Amino acid sequence: MSPPDRRASSLTGVRILLVADLHYTLPQLDWVMSVAADYDLVVLAGDHLDIASLVEPDTQITVVLEYLARLAQKTTIVACSGNHDLDERNALDERAAQWLARASAAGVFVDGTSYETTDTFVTVCPWWDGPLTRDVVDRQLAADAARVDGRRWIWAYHAPPDASPTSWTGSRHYGDDDLVRWIDEHRPDVVLCGHVHQSPFMTEGGWIDHIGTTVVVNAGRQPGPVPTFIQLDTATGTASWSSYEGVDERAMAPG
After folding, report:
1. Model's pTM, two decimal places?
2. What element of type H or E holds 65?
């Protein structure tokens, strides 16, 4: 069965679901499967695999690809890579999540691609593990900046920016300073992240931050069958973070 074609649809007034760092937790993937159809866009922001798992990486990849394909039958799916997802060396001889490209055959928007509608443009950024792949991301963002043309611009990018509450581990910031530079240069509307599991739970951390006019959110991670997740409503301009601590709702706009 072919995946549903939503490339020409509009994301005005729709709901976006963000999850990240599922780390091959199958009950959490099952939960995402159970709710995916309730959203117009579901973003899985990296670390789909778990390098510490007893399950062989090739088996993990096969299973996750099947989940992604089934999710793509329910709604539009974006999946960027994280540091746990690297399986091979790319053409630049740097480690990359080469396996994730196979999900594009099922209609999933993966590393290096973009999803666009009449009013929204989503850039899907790979995890870069060296300066040459970092330069690829730099060129990807510059090229997409020329194509956005006034539309809402959303980035799927595994790591949060450095010196942000969304990258606070409880003892130090563990974010990406190149992302800070790119946000300052291109000023996207929304950056969807994960990577630093603790940030939303820390007193000096947080699940949401504003860098200029850009809103950054980090879903974080919790154990159990339901992942931490963030919902964004582009009609009301609100975002909410849900975890075992409850639900926290904020305005997407700064101030």
Report:
1. 0.94
2. helix 57-71
Distance of CA 190 to the CA centre of its chain: 11
The third-level CATH classification (topology) of the domain covering 15-245 is: Purple Acid Phosphatase; chain A, domain 2 (3.60.21)
- The per-residue DSSP string of 146-186 comes to HHHTTSEEEEE-SSPBTTSGGGB-SSSB--BHHHHHHHHHH
Asked if 240 and 250 count as a contact pair (C-beta separation under 8 A), the reply is yes
Which amino acid would we find at residue 4? P
Q: Report the pLDDT value the prediction gives residue 254, as an integer from 0 to 100.
A: 79
Provide mean pLDDT across the span 212-216: 96
What number is the average pLDDT over the span 24-48?
98
d(CA 99, CA 151): 30
Please, which residues bridge with residue 46 across strands? none
Radius of gyration of the chain from its Cα atoms, rounded to whole angstroms: 17
CA dist list (Å): 117 to 10, 134, 183, 232, 235: 5, 27, 22, 17, 15
Alpha carbon distance 78, 156 (integer Å): 8
Average pLDDT over residues 186-202: 98
Provide DSSP, 104-147: GGGT-B-TT-EEE-SSEEEEEPPPP-SHHHHHHHHHHHHHHHHH
Which one-letter amino acid corresponds to residue 84?
Answer: H
pLDDT at 5: 39
CA 85 to chain centre: 13
Please name the residue that has the structure tokens 């899907």. 124
Angle between the 131-148 and 177-186 helix axes, to the nearest 10 degrees?
20
